[in-house]
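Pasting two entries for a bug report.
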Amino acid sequence: MSYTLQLWEKPADWPWPATKAEADAQFERVSDSPPPGQNPKFLEWGRALQERYPEAMDVWLDGSEDGITEDATLGFGINTRTEHWNDAFELAWAQATRLGLNLYDPQSGVHYLGNGDVPEEPDLQLKRAEQARKAGDDATAWAEYRIHAARGNPHALYAMGRALRFGTMGQRRHFDLAAALQVMGAHDAPTRQDAQAFYERFPVEGKGRIQTLMARLKSASGDMLLAIVDGERKAVDDAYVHNEQLLLYTRKRIEAADGMKAAASMGHELAAFYTVLESVIGWEEPSFENARYWCQRAVDWDHEPAKRLFALMHERGWGGSVDMALAAKWNAAASEQWQQEHKLRRAKEEAESPGGLSLAPMAPPAPATAPVVWTGSVLRDLVGWFAREGNPHAAFYMGTLDEHGRAGGVVNLAQARDWYALAAEEGHADGTYNLGVAIENGSGGPKDRLVAQALFMLANTRGTTVRVDTLKLAPHEQGPVRALVSALREPGRLRAVLREKGLQAGAGGIGAPPKGAAGAAVVAGAGAAAAAGLSGTDWGRTGGAQAPPAAASPQGGTPGRSRGQLAQDEGEDDEDDRMPERDRSYQRTTFALHLGHLALLIGAANVVLLILFFKEGASFRRGMAVMGLIAAYGAWRTGRDFDWAPAARAAVAVVAAIPIVGMAVSVWMLVRSFRGRE
């Protein structure tokens, strides 16, 4: 007994049928069309079935044993008396779809289209994907959806869009792609309504991006469509990695922060978590409300550290009201997620290890840590949390706070040196420079000139504007300094080198865990704290805690060469675009900055007064002399604080000459006055 089927190919310029009536009409038109000649796809299809299930291929309805036919359709029969006839049917369907051919079952009236769609049973073509999802096999489900999406199946396109929208099936979110794929794959009223509602949530520029992306996807097919999807997803991941590294370079910080925020707006949870910190220490006024908003986004996108921080925000009222119930909820969620991820990692290690034994090195016991001491300053405490998590930008910021006693703290040069060392070890350019300044001046610890010079050279390679040729190394010092640079730049080695040379007593409980097995032990300690249900106040990923601030250092003063982030982009003159002083973390103060500007103006006015309004009298001459001295000091101070390029420094020198001339004239007039009295 044979089960008969029909094979046919849709003309390229005909649309894919969306309903049974459309599929029946297309099949009838193809069947009634004149014989187009031999179709090589029919022969390829028939040979694939005969090689796999020769006993099941019962009869060719057109009478041709080798599958050669001149007709537009090919009829065949499968022997239902064989035990493999169901498998033969599945293979016939799979091969037809692979070749872009349509399979028609006259007995059931079902069309299995070459794009993977089945108008009579919309969910049939994706049954493997659905079964895999129900079984928790996200990788198989995603692979199945990709196969059918490449064939233009709307159900698969829509399912991929939903996965990229909500981060399911193990996929990272990408909102632009999600909107484009959902709109393209919407196949009935509910899906069209859902896709349109999501699309309308985008701003005008976002809709423009989506329309452009949809045009590219619609013009592609097969592997090219998947290549576009993969390329767009990779672009966001690459942008995150690129901007994460770019943030370490002072001169590119604004550009990198903007790029990180763009990645966060696409649904990248790690970028959103970075944006939490940028909302506080970035180039604008600290916005703890924005910090809580981006933390909420990272929580929604299932980022475990964000859940711990979000719990702490509710516990301590950072960026909003205090809510201990929500704090407990998110602490529990973070603990549960950590435990699940730990079990998965452990199971993977055991599966990949001989005999199910993990080959990971045994970790020593976690070191004892001091409890976190909250200062009451939201800025200091929030940034400190990030710094203890190992964030280099937060560590650098904390170093400037401790170095200058800002944000409600006292001057603590030893702790500032530790923060700078943590930032430098993670590649932060200005953290490396300020650490060199501290070691050169002996601030917060012992001095070491060669190590300081090596740090300055390393900072230069990381993007600071200090020039290496100003270090004035003696010939016999060049070799040792280069060797130090090589040692300091090794990943995770900088603080160890400093400890070996007695230049750092240790992290003091403030830093990220050490690399390797010791670091694993500290992280394991954090997991134990999470499992114990400790609050966000009591535990963090590193298990570390900030030690209570030490007594104010007797050295008091700030190092003369310390510098912070650039005030603004080159050529930017708008005062409103500058970062407020409490966010800049400069070594200089706001008073010094504005004194320089004011003094230059006084110096220019000094010259004008001398020329236009000169009058006899000692009081006037003394006033001119005082103004000239103030102007000269201000010009020097302004030129010293700004980290300008050589051309800009030359311009400052020219401007500074104006008050210097005024000062000289005033002093000369004052001397003449005193001589005249004699």
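Entry 2 (this is the one that rendered wrong in the viewer):
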Amino acid sequence: MGAYQLKVTIKGSKPPIWRRVLVPQGITFGKLHQMIQTAFCWSDEHLYEFEFRSEGVRVVPGTENWSQKFQYLLGDETIDSLVSGTGKFTYTYGLDKNWELNIQVEDVAADYKESCGQVVKFKGDCVPENCGSIAGYYKLLESDSKELKEYDMSAVNKLLNQGSDHASEEVYIADIYDCYDKSSILEIAKRHGMGGLSKLKKEELAERTIAHILEQKVMSRYFLCARNSEIRLFEQVAADDFQVPSFEAGEMDFLYAGGYVTAGPDNHFMVAEEVIKAYEEVKTQEFKEERERLSTIGDYLRAANSLYAVTPPLVLLEAFNKYEDKKLSLEELLHAYELLHSYRHAVRYVDGNFVDGALEEQKDIEELQQMQKKVPYYIPTQMEIRFMADNEGFLMTGELSCLSKFLTDEMNVPDERVPYLLRQVQAEISMGGQLQEVVEGIEAAGIIFESEEHLEKFTSIITDVWNHTRMVLNRGHKPYEMVMKGLETVSAQRKNPLKIYPNDPCSCGSGKKYKKCCGKKSK
């Protein structure tokens, strides 16, 4: 008996929230439904439906609400004839089918011997099934809701009654470094503070670099600065040797740059046997506690940097001590910064403030501070902090979810391009960008508004996005919050859609002024 490797992704989630699941061949669709429910920590309270669109087939638990457009099968049918013959299908669940999941058939594991399913990889925490929709989930991120929980793959697999037993291919670090060129090994050595090695032959350079990075003190110091998500992925690769999805590959950059993992074709990562052994010796309980503490402090630094760009330590301490049981002192914060800054340079400590690294390099600190109003710093929710830390400062909102749907459904933008565009829009607006700048950025990415209807709908959506974006210029406040709280505004809330003026270039790409092109058509 074999198994299908399925990647199950919640539609509309940006960044994608997914589970990679091995499901045995020969099971029924009803059983597959139950496995998906368990994989997403849902409770099987509602009806479900599988749809194989290209085959014109739907699979449902009962005979209610059948239509003449599809051939229907019941959930007690086995999955093989349909799943083996397709590359993808969909799964809908909930009242009014408010959850839609895309299922990609990635592979068939011919040697799978187990009778139960297993989650082998995942992205994203638990999404409450009764929060309404993916847009409702993003609204929960802005609250302190107790519904939001971390995803525990081990616990899920226990519920699926299936443990992991995947043997890693043995690979040795000397063989890995033998494939690197000399300049790549020098970069690894430089990252660990090794100097005076440039005149060495490649073989001796590799030998000395390997010996150095495997020293317990060196490895411990480096791995202390790894984030929880990076360690989790590192441990999964070390145990399973699975391929890493392209959008998750960035999580391996830190340990790859340190020389502890290697990347092969198609985002396939490997960890050498010597690294695994050394890591097990480093990973004491004391080390784990210190690393997790440092990772948490780093997440707060990362989130604060995204919200304010210039952060006084007391503001960061206020946020940290509001949520964390073990309180943080200024002394510990500055010590943590010194440890992290050894290998991570996104934030710098300048004149008593934590400053965005790019801002400090461009010497624009004073200019930004002059633009920021003297309003209280917005203290984010714990979920916002975590989301921004996990997504390089990006914060998904319900309004951006609507923009995502518009781009995919009406502008036919490929799914893989949408996260980049959403990040770009949020970054532009956060720094005070206006409509024309946002439109130009969208057009520069190759997205052209071919009709006035599309342009008007976009301006309406972007107005909502603008009003609900946490802005650096507002010290993290949304424009509408500034108005509601009676704070002095940098950018007032917009009650009407933003305008493109008659003499602006038309966004349809014609090269004409708006009044001579789409503006003329609207008269």
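Dev reply: Rendering is fixed now. As a check, the viewer should reflect this: DSSP finds 23 helices and 13 strands in the chain.
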